[in-house]
Specification:
Blueprint: H1 3-14, H2 21-29, H3 35-66, H4 72-100, H5 102-121, H6 126-154, H7 160-188, H8 192-195, H9 197-211, E1 223-224, H10 226-249, H11 254-275, E2 281-282, H12 293-322, H13 328-334, H14 337-356, H15 358-379, H16 386-415, H17 421-447, H18 456-478
Parallel strand pairs: 1-2
Helix pairs in contact: 3-4, 3-6, 3-7, 3-9, 3-13, 4-5, 4-6, 4-10, 4-17, 5-6, 5-9, 6-7, 6-17, 7-13, 7-14, 7-16, 10-11, 10-17, 12-16, 12-17, 12-18, 14-15, 14-16, 15-16, 15-18, 16-17
Length: about 500
């Protein structure tokens, strides 16, 4: 490990006096025989929150048919309404959980997610569906902001690589299951895409209330900053709106430029406000965490990487249904191998990162993503040829995703002190969701009207955008260095 990681993993866990009170309580309360069930409950909730980013993609054509007059631009807000609120509230809920209890925030979030899923299934218009998706995003932010912190508090440090791999694999598994499950459910009705959440989220809530142990930071007495939250939500929302509407309004139009500049300005104000002395409010962004280089690089790499990843998920579905004419069910099944590879390689990637360092392994994963995007750019045409044109790119991309996601999470977990775990992992998750929102917005802006019924040439711009974004993310990932690297015991002192 790096020296900082060594201090964290050995001193904090070997010397009980140096461990915060809430961590001692958690470790004493968890019996070894139930740790597997704790991991299963938390991973299942994480998979649900991730699933609702992926499964809705496949339902786009059915939702559009059910609500005549809706456009791909308006439907993109069924995704972005969820993702934007998800991203903006992760940090405040992470800090709130440190104060009032991580289990309490987690289980409440699962319950809100469950109720909002039922409301989404009953939506009577695109507008009400977007509104209920916003509420669903609140629940997802609550459960996701505390998920990894709950797991890292429950498990000893030597088991973290596997735990982080499973946590990351939960998202990959959701990506794998989203398209095929979504395709099957949409054959009945797109509303079943949301109804399927009800029994799963109720189960996660029931077992979570019984298995998880409460932990908190007893020194935190503040509340999340409401103005900072509003600025962040509006900033991300206005920026994404400007990008989504740019093809219709014109890239050089006053409306587009004002939206993009206004969104960036509000995000800048969020950052500046978060740097002020915070005696009363919990800052929306914990800017002090970014002083640790591996943490800052991991969060930035995750953001840029998710631009590419989100574009792959939506762009792949739109290509298969729009260009190759696949049915929703066939597209879902055809899209399965790539995300499945991501789920498999998430566990493998976490182990490789623990041996060679998270930075080089995450950067290697980005190279696989570049190769996948370029494969689609050069190989895919208007005539369907799945095995030779689409599938190889999916496999390359899936391997890349599996190498990147667990290693950016491991870089964060290995860098932060115990008291900042919930906050730090919330920052990472927020970075991922912001990247996903931007990825969808940029993809819709690039494709424009070609998103429905376009040609293979129209999608070439999307594949290039994916490759470029992955390349930028790979360069940033190298800045994570050897964070999370576990040195063999017989090799002496760890390197800094």
């Amino acid at each position: 490990m790096t020296q900082l990681t060594e201090d964290f993993a050995i001193e904090s866990f070997a010397d009980e006096e140096s461990v915060p009170v809430e961590m001692i309580e958690a470790e004493q309360a968890y019996r070894p025989e139930i740790l597997g069930r704790v991991l299963a409950v938390v991973a299942a909730a994480v998979a649900l929150a991730s699933l609702d980013m992926f499964i809705v993609n496949i339902a786009f054509p059915a939702i559009e048919a059910d609500f005549p007059g809706s456009s791909i631009g308006s439907l993109s807000w069924v995704l972005n309404g969820y993702v934007i609120v998800f991203a903006a509230m992760l940090m405040p809920f992470g800090r709130l959980a440190d104060r009032i209890g991580r289990k309490r925030v987690f289980t409440t979030g699962v319950l809100i997610f469950c109720l909002a899923s039922g409301a989404c299934a009953a939506a009577w218009s695109v507008e009400t569906l977007i509104a209920f998706r916003v509420v669903q995003g609140v629940g997802a932010a609550m459960l996701m902001s505390t998920s990894l912190a709950l797991l890292l508090h429950a498990f000893p440090a030597e088991r973290w690589p596997v735990v982080i791999g499973v946590w990351a694999a939960a998202g990959g598994a959701a990506g794998a299951l989203g398209p095929p499950i979504g395709g099957l459910l949409v054959e009945i009705s797109w509303r079943w895409v949301f109804l399927v959440n009800l029994p799963l989220s109720l189960g996660a809530w029931y077992f979570g209330t019984r298995l998880l142990v409460e932990s908190r930071d007893r020194d935190e007495t503040r509340w999340p900053d409401p103005l900072g939250m509003i600025l962040m939500i509006l900033g991300i929302g206005v920026l994404c709106w400007g990008l989504v509407e740019a093809p219709d309004n014109g890239w050089g139009s006053a409306q587009t430029l004002l939206a993009i500049l206004g969104g960036v300005a509000m995000l800048g104000l969020t950052f500046l406000r978060s740097r002020r002395r915070a005696d009363r409010w919990i800052p929306t962004l914990d800017v002090d965490l970014f002083k640790a280089r591996p943490f800052a690089m991991a969060s930035l790499a995750a953001l840029v990487f998710m631009v590419a990843f989100a574009a792959i998920l939506l762009g792949g579905v739109l290509f298969l249904t729009g260009v190759w004419g696949y049915s929703v069910l066939k597209a879902g099944l055809a899209f399965f191998p790539g995300p499945a590879m991501a789920g498999i390689f998430s566990v493998i990637g976490s182990r490789i990162g623990a041996r060679f360092g998270t930075g080089p392994v995450a950067a290697t994963g980005c190279v696989f993503l570049i190769l996948g995007g370029l494969w689609w750019f050069f190989q895919m045409g208007d005539v369907p040829n799945y095995l030779t044109e689409n599938l190889p790119g999916q496999i390359l991309v899936g391997i890349g995703v599996g190498l990147v996601l667990p290693n950016v999470a491991a870089a964060v977990a290995s860098t932060l002190p115990p008291g900042s775990l919930a906050t730090g992992t919330a920052v990472l998750s927020a970075s991922r969701q912001v990247g996903a929102a931007l990825g969808v917005a940029i993809l819709v802006a690039i494709l424009g009207a070609a998103a429905v019924g376009g040609t293979a040439d129209d999608f070439d711009k999307a594949w290039l955008m994916i490759a470029i974004s992955a390349g930028i993310a790979g360069v940033i990932a190298l800045g994570m260095g050897s964070a999370g690297k576990v040195e063999p015991a017989d090799q002496g002192e760890p390197t800094a």
